[in-house]
Amino acid sequence: MLVEPIQSDKISHSSLLQESTIITDFGQSYVAACPPPLFKAGTIVNYASPETRFERRAGFEADIWTLACVIFELRAGFSLFESFLGGDTEVLIQTVDTLGRLPDPWWGAFAHHSHWFEEDGRPKSKRQDRLVTAHKSSIRMKLLEIGKREGTPYPYDRSMVEKSGVRLTEEEIDLLEDLLQKMLKYIPEERIRIQDVIRHPWFTM
């Protein structure tokens, strides 16, 4: 995965042009300084940042959020914010479960959030009449789940995804939790820059 922007006049290594290089634009791409008018991101809801979801705003900061979701999924074998029923609301519920209350005005734009959460972001008591419920979680709790799930046969090659039964060490949990927390800040400007992401000690442990 290529995570740093490349300027065509600065490509200096021939390996970047080989067929073995895999590049993803997370669904769409454009010149960052000139976003298209009436832009609507095509990012899958599981990977979309809050500003993309609520404001149709995308940029390098949104890519950091998406990259964090991808890093977790490659390491865990399951999504950070899973959507069993394929709905945007379900992903939002899991996001608040894991990261806490959305800042205003996004919290108000989260339709019917009072069905699942108190106004401070705490999950409400489970109700039997609700198919989707909220429950308190965290990045660390999700990292501790890695390796606990039973492996399920898949008809395609999953060589890029961590095998089932592989547990993380305490050291890796600490480092990956630190990295993901810095990448998944609600406020885009508070997220770690890509230059600091790739220099994070998790990549060299």
UniProtKB/TrEMBL annotation:
Keywords: ATP-binding, Kinase, Nucleotide-binding, Serine/threonine-protein kinase, Transferase. Signal peptide: none annotated. The keyword Isomerase does not apply. PROSITE patterns: PROTEIN_KINASE_DOM. It holds the Pfam family Pkinase. GO terms for cellular component: nucleus. InterPro entries: CLK_kinases, Kinase-like_dom_sf, Prot_kinase_dom. It comes from the Eukaryota. GO terms for molecular function: ATP binding; protein serine/threonine kinase activity. Residues 1-203 form the Protein kinase domain. This is Protein kinase domain-containing protein. It comes from Asterophora parasitica. The lineage of its organism: Eukaryota, Fungi, Dikarya, Basidiomycota, Agaricomycotina.
